[in-house]
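Re: weekly structure request thread

Next one in the queue (230 aa):
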Amino acid sequence: MRRWRPGRPRLPRTRAGRRRLIRAVMAGCVLALLPATWTHVVTDGRLRTTADVPRTEVAVVFGAGLWEGEPSPYLAHRLDTAAELYRTGRIEVVLVTGDNSREEYDEPDAMRAYLVRHGVPDGRIVSDYAGFDTWDSCVRAKKIFGVDRAVLISQGFHIRRAVALCQEAGVASYGVGVDDVHDLTWYYGGAREILAAGKAALDAVFEPDPTFLGPREPGVARALDLAGER
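Done, posted below.
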């Protein structure tokens, strides 16, 4: 019995066939880029710097991985930005949202400890332990923590998607994109955003429940009350 072996794909032999192939490839590229275009359109005018972002009670910092239990360099830069906004009085409370799906991996607690070491009082930090992706973090910020308006902090390649999704989740948002060296990780993150934008568009259309919802938590309200007692 002869074993089937996949052959190399053959290009169309006729000029008409090649034109159809080119049109199909171009159509596929357009469809792939539509979600990324959507994130740019809906976030127009909502990206700011640490110097001109509107004063807002709450900042949301999205997780970006741990290295040996400590924030990765990308995550550390996000947290440094949050600490700067707190020191300059542009925010009052920081909501750190990340992955704590297993006992040995705890992004929110690592983020909290880093912020405390950099001058943000522990009572001004609120932890979301079920921010498994950007959509989950945005929905939980609104439905669980009662955040209606926030400054979002992330890298430049991610911030538009974060703002677009939080807007869709009901959180009026401005984004601060953190500057980083354009290394291999940065370029990988940028390329990944093309695919992630597709998922974001689906999340915006179908509005799925986050992986874990749970009851409302008063952490943000309590932290703001503490801020008002200064």
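Helices lie at 15-42, 73-87, 107-117, 134-143, 156-169, 184-206, 219-228. Strands lie at 47-48, 58-62, 66-67, 70-71, 93-97, 125-128, 149-155, 172-178.
Next request, please.
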